[in-house]
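Sequence design from tokenized structure. All designs in this work follow the same two-part layout: the structure record, then the generated sequence. An example of the structure record is given first.
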């Protein structure tokens, strides 16, 4: 099979690998759509050194080979998750396999991932897709859609709310799309014009360019001093988290989605005197998958965030394009005759 190889920072090529063979609970999936994630960009493509595994963890495809399956069969359509879970610990039993205590590995980060034609993957890492979902929708389930469905559910977001999304990479675009689908008024913030325009297409009512002045004041002006009811920090930068907390009204809620090593907050101003809630979101419990699939059935336009499609043979171009920032979601699809 053909698959992606990251040789060094900003250096990718396509190589031939042995076709994977199913073993026990691991099946082989032919990949029909596989997305590049921001974590692939920052954690792999932009960092020095050769990576010994095939990258990628967001995908959908068809089971083409099994060994000793428990519930899947050849021909089943599936979406991937990132973790090889034990299935036995308390977090796995809750459906939070992302936090598996006996984590056997992460696909695309140590285990061979999905930026290839085929992958061998544990059955427990796969989600059977309903017939109404396309493969391109399926490759968006794990991060840009599922994470924000779960976060909005925790925040109790509804159509009466004004919600600011800070950072419009793929995760911020996902937050915009899912939150607008709920009927909320979304204000999307990003310095890249391309992504602000894409956010409008995905349902943002208003967009803000940080280069145009104080972001907090811009949003206060847009909301006639109201501020926001909910906020998503998707940029991975400390300043936008402060903006979200400053803007959030009494009893509001801010969700941290962007990876955030550290940030400055003001507990008295942000929490004691406004009773704001602050939470984080990385993925979703598997029990919510049926809810997420119904979003697509009811018209969720998440596939509109896909702006570029490449074959695995074009892996170097795909990664380089995503690196520019002038994209939405970049995905791999099979070459068609």
């Amino acid at each position: 099979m053909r698959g992606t190889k990251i040789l060094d920072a900003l250096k990718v090529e396509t190589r031939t690998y042995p076709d994977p063979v199913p073993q026990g609970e691991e099946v082989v999936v032919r990949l029909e759509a596989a997305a590049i994630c921001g974590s692939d960009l920052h954690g792999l493509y932009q960092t020095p050194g050769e990576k010994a595994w095939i990258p990628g963890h967001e995908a959908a495809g068809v089971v083409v080979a099994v060994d000793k399956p428990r519930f899947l069969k050849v021909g089943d359509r599936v979406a991937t998750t990132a973790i090889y879970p034990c299935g036995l610990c308390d977090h796995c039993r809750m459906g939070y396999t992302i936090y598996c205590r006996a984590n056997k590995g992460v696909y695309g980060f140590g285990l061979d991932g999905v930026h290839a034609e085929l992958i061998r993957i544990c059955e427990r890492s796969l989600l059977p897709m309903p017939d109404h979902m396309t493969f391109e929708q399926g490759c968006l389930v794990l991060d840009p859609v599922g994470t924000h469905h779960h976060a909005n559910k925790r925040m109790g977001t509804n159509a009466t709310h004004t919600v600011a999304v800070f950072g419009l990479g793929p995760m911020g675009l996902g937050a915009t799309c899912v939150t607008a689908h709920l009927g909320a008024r979304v204000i999307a913030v990003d310095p890249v014009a391309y992504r602000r325009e894409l956010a409008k297409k995905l349902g943002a009512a208003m967009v803000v360019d940080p280069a145009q002045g104080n972001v907090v004041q811009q949003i206060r002006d847009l909301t006639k001093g109201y501020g926001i009811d909910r906020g998503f920090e998707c940029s991975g930068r400390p300043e936008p988290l402060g903006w979200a907390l400053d803007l959030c009204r009494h009893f509001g809620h801010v969700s941290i989605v962007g990876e955030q090593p550290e940030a400055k907050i003001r507990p008295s101003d942000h929490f004691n005197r406004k009773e704001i809630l602050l939470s984080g979101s990385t993925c979703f419990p598997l029990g919510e998958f049926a809810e997420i699939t119904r979003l697509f059935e009811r018209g969720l336009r998440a596939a509109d965030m896909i702006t570029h499609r490449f074959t695995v043979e074009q892996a170097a171009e795909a990664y380089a394009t995503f690196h520019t920032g002038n994209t939405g979601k970049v995905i791999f699809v099979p070459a068609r005759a």
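The chain has a mean pLDDT of 96. We note this feature because it recurs in several other targets discussed in the main text.
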